[in-house]
Amino acid sequence: MRAWVRDRRLPAFRAEQILRWAYQRAAESFESMSDLGREVRAALARDFTLPVLQLADLAHAADDTRKLLFTLEHGRAIESVIIPDPPRLTACISSQAGCAMGCQFCATARLGLQRNLSAVEIAAQLLAVRRQLRPEERLTNVVFMGMGEPLHNYDAVVEASEILTADWGFGLSGRRVTVSTVGLLPQLEQLVRDTSVSIAVSLTATTDALRNRLMPVNRRYPLAELLATCRSLPIAQRRRITFEYVLLAGVNDAAADAARLVKLLHGIRAKVNLIPFNPFPESGFAPPPTAVVREFQQRLLSAGVNASVRATRGRDIQAACGQLAAANSPQSAQRNAEEHR
Ligand code: SAH
User: Fold this and answer.
1) Residue 330: pLDDT above 60?
2) Which backbone phi and psi does 317 adopt, to 5 degrees?
3) What's the Cα-to-Cα distance from 221 to each of 61, 203, 217, 263, 272, rounded to whole Å?
4) What average pLDDT does this structure show over 168-174?
5) Mean pLDDT, to the nearest integer, of 48-55?
6) Is the distance from the beta carbon of residue 145 to the nearest atom of ligand 1 less than 6 Å?
7) How far apart are CA 178 and CA 66, in angstroms?
8) Total-model pTM
9) Among residues of the chain, what percentage have pLDDT more than 70?
10) Which atom of ligand 1 is closest in space to residue 244's alpha carbon?
11) Helix (H/G/I), strand (E/B), else coil: 278
12) pLDDT-wise least confident of 46-50, 199-203, 245-249
């Protein structure tokens, strides 16, 4: 937009003014950008489209979690989730349609990678989210924890992060925007240099043997390298890295796992987010009983590791972590099937 404005010899501030209309004020047409001249509006309409996504379905969970399904071209679809947790309200957004990482316990992985989202498509999810909010609700946090591996779509995610944190955009502090990754290490180091967002790393296993099996990315970036990188990330003094740990009954929920986890995180400003597994059809895994989850958390806490259990939200509408597969639209499922034939 800055280049476009420059090419037209317009004053530089017009770029931000236009972006403010698009993102902060959610203008529905260029025509409605009333403090721009008629010619500029017409030129914008010729050269750009406004960030909009096709909302195909809205599901409302008993706990007030809301899931938005958007259809893309070729029957592909992505999902975003609204998670009210007063005084916070978090939007969980997607960075890719499908995902290439192949984590065994994740429904999105079953889709494979369909395609990357553009920065505008990523940000447009938040425009749609905002439209669904009640008058008293306000978006406070954004997590890149929907479909896809954000660091596998690096440039778009960095650009989207700018839209989320810019004054002319969603105006969120980097502390309130969290990018979650399986641990693509070169991109993780770059992200900390390029943006001010917070970091979450999906760990889920404490030995290479198990992590290789659950998260194939571990064969490329094994645990020792992952944790060495986390240890060396230049994150501000008061910030912590979140480590997500999906608890799978009988797989990674034993006392020995907790003990190894404590050792791995030694010397890192870390907080652990325990996520009891959310089931999906034919996953082959189950969540541990609540007592086991509590005990696992207790073992971390008594070793001085900050650990919380992520409340499961929206499970009844398949909106919980690892359940996003955009499969609830019969239409899109059918079109996917046709494409594969
Ligand atoms: N690809 C990124 C972003 C997705 S975040 C990443 O993996 O970090 C989604 C989080 O949900 C990740 O921590 C992932 O490990 C976790 N998850 C995946 N499948 C899950 C499931 N079935 N139940 C609970 N958590 C799951």
Assistant:
1) no
2) -115, 25
3) 37, 12, 6, 19, 20
4) 97
5) 92
6) yes
7) 19
8) 0.94
9) 96
10) 13
11) coil
12) 46-50
79 classed as catalytic: yes
Within 10 angstroms of residue 340's Cβ, the number of other Cβ atoms is 6
pLDDT-derived band at 15, boundaries 50, 70, 90: very high
pLDDT > 50? residue 262: yes
Ligand 1 nearest-atom number relative to CA 283: 22
Residue of 16, 28, 79, 338 marked active site: 79
Residue from 106, 321, 338, 339 carrying the catalytic annotation: 321
Which residue from 105, 147, 245, 313 has its CB within 8 A of the most atoms of ligand 1, so it is best to mutate? 105
User: According to the model, what pLDDT value does residue 14 have?
Assistant: 97
Token readout for 210 is 């198990």
Residue having the nearest C-alpha atom to atom 1 of ligand 1: 149
* Cβ of 305 below 6 Å from ligand 1: no
Find the DSSP H helices in the chain.
2-7, 13-19, 38-47, 119-132, 154-165, 185-194, 208-214, 217-220, 223-232, 255-264, 290-302, 330-340
Lowest average pLDDT, out of 71-80, 217-226, 247-256, 257-266, goes to: 71-80
Q: Are 157 and 144 in contact (CB under 8 A)?
A: yes
Any idea what DSSP says for residue 99? Answer: -
Q: Which atom of ligand 1 is nearest to the CA of 323?
A: 22
136 is catalytic: no
- Give SS3 for 95: coil
How many residues can be counted in the chain? 341
